[in-house]
Amino acid sequence: MPRIIMKSPYIKPNFKTHIGNYVSYIATRDGVEKADSTQKFMETTERQKQIIKKLLSDYPDSKDLYEYQDYLDKPNIGNADELILRIAEAHAELFGDREKYVSYIAQRPRVEKISSHGLFTDDGVPIVLSNVQKEIAESNSNIWTHIISLKREDVERLGYNNAKAWMNLIRSQRNMIAENMKIAPENFKWYAAFHNEGHHPHIHMIAYSKKPNEAYLTEKGIENIKSNLAKVIFRQDLISIYQKQTEHRDKLRAEAREIVEDLVSKINSEIYISASIQHKLLELADRLSKSKGKKVYGYLKPDVKAIVDSIVDELANDDRIKKLYVLWYEQKENTIRTYTDEMPERIPLVDNKEFKSIKNAIIKEALKLNLTEDEVEKRENTDEESVLNPFEYEENTSVESVFDSGRGVLYPHYSIKTNRNSVAVSSLYLLRYLCNIIQNQLRFEEKQKVQRTDKKLQQKINDKKQAQGLKM
C-alpha cells in the first residue's frame, strides 16, 4: 500500500441523508472506546460485521484504507471499531449535519488540543469552535473533508506525531491545495485537526471557498495534493532515491553520447556499421546542412525531428541503454509508490523529456560527419562551370548521393541531360564522373591500408610491452 492515503469526499449545501444506525454507533461507540484491553482483541461483534458490510457496500473505496487491511489481517473488536469510525470520518454526512462533524473532529478522543479544542488554521487567525460550526453550517459552498493518513512507524520516524508538525505542513502547502481545488488563495478557507490514532495517525481537514461554486476538485487534483505532501513528508527518504535516479539518468545520457560519437567516428573512417542507423545519420547530416537557423532539436522542422527520433529509437534497442533506462524507471516508480500503488505506463525513451539532451547530442555529432569530400568536389565543379562553359548549349545536370552499404561511403551520382550536338560536353562530364569513381576507390583503399598498418604496428608494440612485463 502507499505510504500516504488521502480521502476527499465533500458535502453539498443543505444535504440530507438517512443514516440509520451509523450515528448511534458513532455516538455511543460500543466498540473499543468502551472496551478494556482484553475485549479489544475479542472477535468482531455481529453488529460491527453488519455495519461494516453496509459501509463497504455504500463506500467501496473504503477498501483502500489502512484500517481495512488491519481488519482483514485481524478481525477483532478493536480493528472493526477503527475501520467503522474511519469510514464515518471520511464521509461527514454520516454525522447527520455539518455542525456535528466539526464538533467531532475538534473534540473527539485522542485529538491533540491546541486550546480547548484541536482545530488549527492559517497563522494569526483566531478560532472559536462555535463560530466555526456556524460558519460551515451556513456556507453555500461545497465542503470538502480531506483525511490524510500515515503509518505509525513513518509518523514516529519523520516527526509527524504531533499537531504542530502538521500545522506547519498544511500552512506551508495551503496555496498548493487551494490551486488544485481551483480556489483563489484569498477565497480559500480551511480548518484541520490531528488525531493521534494507534496504528494510523491522521489529520482531518475541512476546506472550501468563500465564493460559492468556485471550488472544483478532480482525481488528478487529489493525486497532485498527495504527491506534493508526500514529497515534503518523505523528503529525507526520497533524497537517496532521487540521487540514484539522477545517477542512472546521467549514465544513460553519457552512454548514448558515446555510442553516437563512436558511430560517427566509424562513418568518417569509412568503417562499416549497421546500415540502418548509418543511413539515418547520413540523412540527418545532409538535412542539417540544408537547414537554416539553430541546429538544436527544438528549432528543427518536423520531418528533420522525425529522423532524430528514429535514431533515438535505434539507440533504445541497445542493451546498455535498455538496462539503464529500466534502472532509471525503477527509481522513478519508487517515488510514485510513496502516494499510490497505480503505476503510470512506461513511455518510450524517445518521448521522455528527461532525456531530450540525447536528441541534441545526436544532432551535434551528426554535424561532424564528413559529407564531405564528395560534396566539396561537387560544389567546386559547379563553380567551375562558368569558366569551362564558353559555349551556349542546353543542359541540365543534377547530382544525388548514392550509399554503398558494403563500405559505408556516399558516392555522387550524376544525371546528365544535354543537347544531342553537345558531344564534347557530354564526354567531359562522363570523364569527370569516371575520375570521381576512381578517386573515391583510391581513397578507400588507402584508408584501409593505413588501418591495417596501424593494427600491425599496435600489435608489435603490445607484444613488446607484454614481453617486458608492462601493463597493456
Total of DSSP H or I helical runs spanning 4+ residues: 16
- Biggest β-sheet: count, sense, barrel? 5 strands, antiparallel
How big is the Rg?
A: 37 Å
How would you state the average pLDDT, rounded? 76
Class by SSE composition = alpha+beta
Strand-residue fraction? 5-15%
> Which spans of ≥5 residues are poorly predicted at pLDDT below 50?
18-35, 372-430
DSSP E strands, number = 7
Number of domains: 3
Order of helices and strands: EEHHHHHHEHHEEHHHHHHHEEH
Helix residue percentage: 40-55%
Cα distance spanning the termini: 53 Å
Q: What would you note in describing this structure?
A:
- With 472 residues, the protein is of the alpha+beta class.
- Helices cover 54% and strands 11% of the residues.
- The chain has helices spanning 22-28, 46-58, 66-73, 77-90, 98-107, 129-138, 152-158, 163-180, 219-233, 235-268, 275-289, 302-316, 319-336, 356-366, 372-388, 423-467, and strands at 4-7, 10-11, 143-150, 188-195, 202-209, 395-404, 409-418.
- The strands form two sheets. Strands 1, 2, 3, 4 and 5 form a five-stranded antiparallel sheet that branches.
- Helix 5 runs antiparallel to helix 6 and helix 10 (235-268) packs antiparallel against helix 13.
- The longest helix is centred in the last third of the chain and has 45 residues, at 423-467.
- The two termini are 53 Å apart.
- The relative contact order is 0.08.
